[in-house]
Design a protein that fits this description.
The protein is mainly beta. Helices cover 8% and strands 31% of the residues. The chain is built from one helix and eight strands; from the N terminus they run ββββββββα. Strands 1-6 form a two-stranded antiparallel sheet. It has a two-stranded antiparallel sheet with strand order 2-5. A two-stranded antiparallel ribbon has the order 3-4. The longest helix has 7 residues. It starts with 23 loop residues before the first strand and ends with a helix.
Length: 85
């Protein structure tokens, strides 16, 4: 899985309501990124079990009231929540 993004919640307003501070980012996967280069080596041996792709997420900043919680650690923006239903 890709790295967790950190952002300054004090600097970003919710993109949905544009009133409250954002506290979460949308976790919907919208694509994937392929790594350039060769597969990683472990102890000099190429390890083909390590994926050469990483997911790209929506990352729309949202407040707690505008998000749709799927699990404790997965939030979706209204557009992606609507597509899920």
């Amino acid at each position: 899985m890709g790295d967790v993004k950190e952002f300054d919640t004090n600097a970003i307003l919710c993109k949905i309501c544009k009133k409250r501070k954002s506290t979460v980012l949308c976790d919907a996967i919208i694509g994937e990124m392929a790594y350039a280069g060769h597969p990683p080596k472990i102890n000099g041996i190429i390890d083909l079990s390590i994926p050469m792709r990483s997911p790209i997420t929506c990352d729309t900043p949202m407040c707690d009231k505008c998000t749709t919680k799927i699990t404790d650690h997965m939030d979706l923006c209204p557009d992606h929540a609507k597509k899920l239903k």
